[in-house]
Design goal:
Radius of gyration: 14 Å
Helix content: over 70%
Low-confidence stretches: none
Strand content: under 5%
Structural class: mainly alpha
Amino acid sequence: MEKLQQSAELLKNKNRLRWACRRGMLELDVLFMPFVEEAYDDLDAEQQEVFRRLLTCDDPDLFAWFMGHQKCPDAELSAMVATILSRVKV
């Protein structure tokens, strides 16, 4: 029973992540959605936290970082941007 509750909580969190990945820019959606589906579960807990923190950033900043127009000033977030770009083929 406890395992079922843990699974339900994980699914609930994953659903929240999916919702947070829906952005106002298609360019970000095509990066975040496949990453959550295909790679998020492979991250360790610290990397998952960094990814969740990345999702709290503003879309214009995210767009600039992912398109290479600007470098993210936060080293952890910058590393996550690189991870996402290397894992998602668009």
